[in-house]
Amino acid sequence: MSFRIRLILPIIIILFAAYLRFYRFSEFVTFLGDQGRDAIIIKRIITLEHFPAIGAPSSLGQIFLGPFYYYLIAPFLLFFNFNPVGPAFGVGFLSIVGAIFAFKIVKKEFDFITALIFLIFISFSAVNVQLARFSWNPNLLPVFSFLALYFFDKTLTQKNKRYAALFGSFLSFSIQLHHLAFVLIIPTILSYLSSRIYFGISLNKILKQVQNDLKIILIAFISFVFFSLPLLIFDLRHNFLNTKNLLKFFSEGNPTDQEQFISRFLETNNFFYTHIFQTDFNQYFAFILTVVLIYITVKKFKLKNYFFIYINLVTFISYLLIFSVFNTARNFHYYNPVYFSFYLILSLLITSISKNKVFKYFIIIFVLALYIFFNLKSLSYLFSTRGNNQIKKAEIIADSILRDNPQIRFQTIALPYLETDGHIRYYLEIKGKRPLPADTLQEPLELFVLCFEKDCQVLGSPQWQIAAFKRAKVDKIWKVEGVKIYKLIHK
């Protein structure tokens, strides 16, 4: 393959990736309560008002992530002059940059064809495209977890201090993006121990080998702690709030289920392939596919020569096993730490499936064609005539409240209780009318209730902000962008 083709093909694929991620971008960007909450925090970083030591609360309750995502994405909100499309654009842009870096890594470690197929998988993946089209802390985890594994490989194989520092930092970044990245620690330990045993070191000499590796392990650990420091300091200053809530969740929340592990594993494994290929899979067929992938990988690639493959393979397997223990939905973003690892394994297998070039390229083209077809078909915005325009709607709703000239101190809340109003609050704040904090105990003079259903039972609602609003009286009701707004005042 000529140098010109080797240069042009990746560029064409990256352009397709960018097109899929930014086509009709502002029309379909998700901007709801979580994005509005994050935008408020990022806006206050930019204006030097507040520098948070914690990130977003996780879905586990009051267990907070680290603040890395806020600082990473803040420049994009500033660049877009506080338009909330900025953070979403930042996620899309960084996902493209991450795909380029991942392509270069695979090309360097293996060969051009494998790297090209890997890039196609990333670029046309409906899951990765959807993650790149809105701002949310887990969305960049596929890139960061893959880079963490790469730097771990380099740390062990080259005993390089710089790579050790990068591994520690990217592991910290990954965990700050989502708590499920904690699972990455287990395959890294397993990969480390297996590599030392494989290369002729007996079990009773592992501790001695660990002592020899202690310097790079210590550097990685210090790097990890350094970039996790804001969250650690927060925990120390708040009587270990995060740690206590995490322990409480595991002790009282029944998050795991070992009794039905086999059925949970089959379900977890099946959902993974459903998300990857965007089509329904039979769980037994999905299980056979995983077994075949493991078998062929182990048979074709020797650990001594392909340690990076084994790190990704161990990560993929251990993640599915550990995730199977948890009682939670199998949403596509919960698999973020292993998407790139799977794409790497699959790319290597289909490029090494046969020595017959005609048959090999037929398989490659066939697999990629089916993959692209099913993934593109599931991207509804490519075929939809109208966008949801959530950013514009949030601004219109905020403007309708501002036209009522709310008194300072006023408050906004959303009904039903599952709804949040961070996106409305963001526009109120940047337009100079900041509502009281959502968790404040201070009584407002006016309360604007945003009803996201056809009708809401406002007066007498058990929602605590309404219940605490003394002698409540409905002053006005109006409807804008499908949201009914109730203005409550004191009698």
Automatic annotation (TrEMBL):
Keywords: Membrane, Transmembrane, Transmembrane helix. The keyword Transmembrane applies. The chain crosses the membrane at residues 7-23, 60-80, 87-106, 112-129, 136-152, 164-193, 214-234, 281-298, 305-326, 332-351, 358-376. This is Glycosyltransferase RgtA/B/C/D-like domain-containing protein. It comes from Candidatus Roizmanbacteria bacterium RIFCSPLOWO2_01_FULL_37_12.
